[in-house]
Protein: CRISPR-associated endonuclease Cas3
Organism: Roseofilum halophilum BLCC-M91
Amino acid sequence: MKEPIARPGQTLKTHLSNVSDRLLSLLPEPYRPLSSAGLLHDVAKASTGWQHYLQEKVEGKDPKMVTHAAESAMAAAMISGWNRKNPPLIAYAIAAHHSQLKYRKNSEWFKTQKQRDADPELKDMILESMAWFRQSYGEFNIPGHLNLESSEKDVAIRMLTALLVDSDRLDAHCFSGGTVAIEAPPRSPQIVLPTRSTAIDSIRNRFREAICVETGHPFYRLTGPCGVGKTKAIMEVCDRLQAEKIIYVAPLKSILKQSADEFRVAYGAENILEHHSGYDPQEHQDWQIWKAQTERWELPVIVTSGVQFYESLLSNRASKLRKLRALINAVVVLDEVQTLPTQACKSILAILDQLTQHWGLKVILCSATQPKFEFCPRAASAPELVPLEVVAWCRGQMRNREYEWVGDLDWQAIGEQIDRSTLIGVNTRKAAQNCYYALLAQGIKALHLSSAMCPLHREQVVKAARQQLHRGQLCVLIATQVIESGIDISFPQAFKMMAPLDSIIQFGGRVNRAGEYPGAKVFLFDHGENLHSPEYAQAINVTRDLLQAYDDPFWDDHDLAIRDYYQQKFGFEGVNLEKLRLDLNFPEVAKFRCIDDNQITGYVQWGGGKRLIEALQEKIKNKEYLTLGDWKQLAQYAISVPQSQARHVQVEDGLRVWSGDYDEAIGAVLVDHD
């Protein structure tokens, strides 16, 4: 038999050995037997059928596609020991390395002997591949099984797939003349401290100086009130932990942008990779280089969104799983950890917990309102990086606003109480728009901020609000939850529609932020338009109970109230994601989405959006591909609306364009929606 090749100029045996050697160098000691996946991942390419297919491709012909991943998985399963109830772990990764992880009960590689024998071409391909393998590598044991618990199996398969995909792609890349980046840990951060010495600076210095890092723990907690300077503290902690890579995860684009700017100053712009929907690589670098870096997360500091990170952890797609190779020996920082999606929280923490046990990961949980996570013992017992007595002192020093329950209020009643700059927090876009028009009828020209406005429009509103406040002008801002985190703005008073406890506390961080407004207050009120999902409503009901149970849940009784709140919040049941994960049902787990799928995206022709949309539509008409940079620019003009508004989102020349009204003050005018 002629020596089979993986690609012109490279023998199959060389390719398999290269991938296996790389896997062996990356896998932790308990999982090193799984490096056999490297030797077997392309074994079906040894068959006459696949070699003939490759030859015709090289000759410029158009042969019928001959697949090899599922067939290689079948051969690997038979070589390493077939068991229908407990198939070998390597077979999952091998079958997925060009596509996605499948569920064993409906996977194309999970076939019975009878099914294989019924397909002569498949049978011959597998037997021929197995014969070549044994001739090349001899009759030695290929361990495809490890004695693992279900949770360990899930993580082992995900990480093996990530490393197999990465090793396979890199070998092909190097063979074609490419180079592999030498990954180095982040340098010691150059933390820039303010030259002035205000009261808030003194509090931040006390907080940072109190950091105490006991090495050897899998999880750590960094608890601190809003505005205490947690980003600088994070850099200090990562330096003391000697992080080989830092992966910073946050829920909002505003937080990501602000933190990324601080990281650039501390670590150098060349060492920072932003990977989230709000980042435009064309502002900083060639987007093709950026795209390649996002596939592997190869730079020292990664700044990414919760959506990107959590959905990658739970994904079954090889391309998304590949970046998980960066988690080995890394430090993951989960900022605003209280925003972990409740339905996936147990599964996310279980995966991270496994990665801390065998893959060298360390996790820092950051929040002003820390959940206990009692269902994950190692997270629940995580040591505090700043002693809680110091946190309490900082919170006491930053007690620069009070909360007062004022009962039911309508928009007119709120308008009558506006005698200074005021922030009004509501829970839905409909409420925000109705409040805006009600105040306008009273002669109050407010600013409006909600996700009914595209990102660029929201940036302009925040800028206008800051300018009004800076000039001492009356500023009234009506905002949904988009104001609650990551926006550095400060009002002397606020009205907050009844909401979950963590939401109220985050909202409060936009009031008297630096102590510049003595006597600042947040008035909590109820309103008939307070409509939301069952889960959100349940969180509000828990908060109502806590307001009755504690005299001061926002300050004096903060820690006890937060503990009780999160015990109930993360007990909410939805889809039993963890049961699906432990059953290794990768496709069903991957259906989880951090963002409600019952929304439709449209692009608005506001500002420069009209000109951009027309230019991109012209490219589509000319059969040109839109680049990643094109899509990033377009994202600045995107809004997500309920399916009930789908009639206003029209597909025009390949793009979904919002055809409804778009107002300069309130954005998309949404009618008959919650």
User: Anything to note?
Assistant: The first helix runs from residue 12 to 26. DSSP finds 27 helices and 20 strands in the chain.
